[in-house]
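A.,

Following up on our hallway conversation. Structure tokens first:
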């Protein structure tokens, strides 16, 4: 049980999962602003630990080193979330490690809300810059991307309390949907 819940406080703990481009970073920031809590973005933490720019971290250090640092950072971020509450934008790359999946499930069992973000394959490809013409020498990048999406979305859905499609919604709209209504208001009134 988290330290905040043990002391009787309501610890707003939200874990955002999703493939690249689904909106974990932007939804995490919007949700934290709306709730007035801290946010931790795993991709940013990993890039900082590796000492490389965020968008280039995986390419700059190679997948094996990146995933190793990412796994450690994910487990530490989940521990910090349990102690302090807040929002954790976890993404999905770290879910390849069983220990991380188990830690997310344990956090969910302790009361953290786990949300899987998704979007259409076309939207995710566009958000990741994969809708531009490419050299045939690179192979079938879109096919590899789609395979990766299917695997990661299965992990995310398997761990999540709910799934939200971000294809046609803004980060702020998703954050609103995930936030409790103001005191005295029922979000579903009149529906």
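Then the amino acids I'd put at each of the 191 positions:
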């Amino acid at each position: 049980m988290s330290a905040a819940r043990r002391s009787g406080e309501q610890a707003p703990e939200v874990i955002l999962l999703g493939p690249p481009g689904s909106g974990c970073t932007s939804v995490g920031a919007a949700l934290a602003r709306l709730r007035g809590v801290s946010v931790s973005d795993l991709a940013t933490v990993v890039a900082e630990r590796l000492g490389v720019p965020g968008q280039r971290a995986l390419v700059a250090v190679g997948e094996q080193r990146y995933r190793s640092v990412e796994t450690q950072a994910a487990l530490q971020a989940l521990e910090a979330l349990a102690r302090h509450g807040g929002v954790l934008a976890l993404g999905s790359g770290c879910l390849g490690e069983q220990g991380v999946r188990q830690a997310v499930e344990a956090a969910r069992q302790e009361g953290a809300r786990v949300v899987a973000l998704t979007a259409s394959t076309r939207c995710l490809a566009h958000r990741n810059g994969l809708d531009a013409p490419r050299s045939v020498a690179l192979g079938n990048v879109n096919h590899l991307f789609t395979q990766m999406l299917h695997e990661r979305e299965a992990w995310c859905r398997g761990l999540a309390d709910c799934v939200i499609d971000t294809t046609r919604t803004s980060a702020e709209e998703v954050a609103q949907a995930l936030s409790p209504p103001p005191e005295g208001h029922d979000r579903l009134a009149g529906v």
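The chain is about 50% helix and 15% strand. Curious whether your intuition agrees with the design.

B.
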